[in-house]
Amino acid sequence: MNPVLVEAWRGPAVESFHRGALVVVDAGGQAVWSLGDVQRPVFPRSAIKVLQALPLVASGAAQALGLTDAELALACASHNGEPGHADTAAGVLHRLGLDASALECGAHWPGLDTAGRALAAAGREPTALHNNCSGKHAGFLCLACAMQGGAKGPDLQRFVRGYVQPDHPVMREVGAALEAATGERLAHAPMGIDGCSIPTYALPLKAWALAFARVATGQGLSADHARAAQRLRQAVARSPFHVAGTGRFDTRVMERLGERVFCKVGAEGVYCAALPEQGLGVALKMDDGNTARAAEVVMAAVIEALLPLSDDERQVMRSLSDVTLRNWRGTEVGALRAAQALRALSSA
């Protein structure tokens, strides 16, 4: 059974808790920290969007199309669907002579409540541009443009139809990048369909951590993928709003810590991170699939323990790893706290 990583306190007592697994590895695959079953295959969901974006940069598509930091950050994003996100995705599609109808991620209301209410108040319905994965999918279409020798408009539209299918050339290129980063064969892994309709593969948690150590260092990647990883990390650090959005953990942490951390949330309690200065990759999975309540607390505790931080930075990270809970009147009622097993590991 995996250890308790996060406790939910109400007053002086633990009311509930969240179990999970965590692993931190170097680019050689050596585990620096390990808690729980880190060999169990897990679907990484959106936590690995930076890996899926490697071909976008490595192919030369990003440079040929002049993609900005914001547009590259959006390719790695699970964004709120705020106007700045939807407009950025639309701008990428405009370069390709396409519109939102080319995106095969589906439409949903913006994740940020105020953005959704503003959209509804204007009498508008959400489009695929508001999908939290629209930037990633726009990046896939940019990759397709490069694969087709710069084709745009109707010619590109014909090629990209069905690009979310596992056997489409775009998904085969993305899959090859995942294999190169993790060192695993996807043909041997359980495959599912992600929320945005692309394939998702279950690999050992340790393999995902290794991939992020390689993103952090470039070690173990091809020269083109290493350069792509560095460019994407820089883009997200320069435009952290576009990787998540207002009030979100990933945006808040990278606004504060810049290129020292690349962290990315995934559904069902998955989180991954690259720590370039330490040459480390992090992957964690909460057993109950809890993301905002539990996985963020674990990731904050890991960053707090592994990075040299100023007093102000440490205070910010502690506020994310030891979260005060308040009721609707603003009264303090408890806390979410990194559990002793996690704090003990970080102090070892």
Automatic annotation (TrEMBL):
InterPro entries, per database record: Asparaginase_II
A Pfam family annotated for this UniProt entry: Asparaginase_II
Highest taxon in the source lineage: Bacteria
PANTHER family with a match to the protein in the record: L-ASPARAGINASE, PUTATIVE (AFU_ORTHOLOGUE AFUA_3G11890)-RELATED
Protein name (Swiss-Prot/TrEMBL): Asparaginase
Species annotation: Caldimonas caldifontis
